[in-house]
Amino acid sequence: LNRSLRGFGSTIFAEMSALAVKTGAINLGQGFPDTDGPESVREAAVKALRDGRGNQYPPGPGVPELRTAITEHQQRFYGLTFDPDTEVLVTAGATEAIAASMLALLEPGDEVIAFEPFYDSYAASIAMAGATRVPLTLRAPDFRPDLDALRDAITPRTRLLLLNSPHNPTGMVLTRDEVTAIAALAVEHDLLVVTDEVYEHVVFDGEHVPLISLPGMRDRTVSISSSGKTFSFTGWKVGWVTASASLVAAVRTAKQYLTYVSAGPFQYAVAEALRLPGSYFAGFRDDLRGKRDLLSDGLAAAGFEVHRPQGTYFVTTDITPLGEKDGPAFCLGLPERCGVVAVPNAVFYDDPDAGRTLVRFAFCKRHDVLEEAASRLRRLA
Ligand code: PMP
Ligand code: GLN
């Protein structure tokens, strides 16, 4: 293993999902839904396969139908206009979009400021690009970013901000004021911004404000999203980038030599998904809101301190009231103690002590599964 990847080993999600399989515990660790997305979208994938659409290499930037649907989505939800030919790139999930962005936009020695705790691929992608990550720690209880600390973290070597809102794992959603302030800093210091917006449709309190919609940001922001979360098809790995033509061209160059193109038939299906009526998106969010409340209440009843999320399908808890001090050890023992798997937030920090007592539970699961998990967790109380 080369030096840039040393220490990255296997991801916490693979580890904890393997533990769930081994112990038969309810898996509230890795974030994937236990119910597939809409039937009509599945049918569209089957139809594409049968009709021979996308069974051979699709175009590098993505099939035109999907690129157009992505631009229509950006227009419908945010009033943003993109050219489907030059300002959209389809990727193998948001994960590839993040990695390709880092490889395309960073020079060795550049600094990248990212919220900590961070989704685990950020650190690895920054490292693969030979750059240095500079964490901006989000702190309990509400995990709001400290904008003065952000300003202080910017140095002459800072090249870009890698932002995630709604934020995994804390569930924090940036407010319009915060997004505005961050955009002003980016303009002032001439920074690029890469925004991971995969949970854009999972906001319970507040609203999702794409950074690229702010003044001065249109040509310096790479906006990333994915069908995995919004349509509950995490296995399809269809993500995308929307940005200016020159930024898309840069990311496309890197993507070209990572995967060349993304799998074809699913792209046609995701194009259909993006055109679902507003009621789909609202229903998806409202269903998850009920699940958030169900699991948050269950965790509180079991004695956890609960940081109820504003968005995403994760709830972060503190295990201190249970007399526990060490999240990683707690999560390793949890399947044995009560048949539930969770993820220790400590793995998402550079300094694991910063998140030592925090533990994340995913609630993108059926009601009966969440109820059973809540009742098992009450054994801890
Ligand atoms: N970013 C965040 C914040 C995520 O939680 C995930 C989820 N798994 C991803 C990116 C990756 O998305 P995809 O599965 O589309 O690669
Ligand atoms: N994003 C999901 C999570 O945070 C899982 C993604 C993955 O397994 N890489 O749980």
From TrEMBL:
Q: What is this protein's name?
A: Aminotransferase
Which SUPFAM superfamilies does the record associate with it? PLP-dependent transferases
Report the InterPro entries cross-referenced here. Answer: Aminotransferase_I/II_large, Kynurenine-oxoglutarate_AT, PyrdxlP-dep_Trfase, PyrdxlP-dep_Trfase_major, PyrdxlP-dep_Trfase_small
Which cofactors does this gene product need? pyridoxal 5'-phosphate
* Any GO molecular function: transaminase activity
- The residues covered by the Aminotransferase class I/classII large domain are 25-377
A Pfam family that this protein carries is Aminotran_1_2
Keywords assigned by UniProt, alphabetized? Aminotransferase, Pyridoxal phosphate, Transferase
Q: Work out whether the entry's keyword set contains Transferase.
A: yes
Q: Which organism is it from?
A: Streptomyces daqingensis
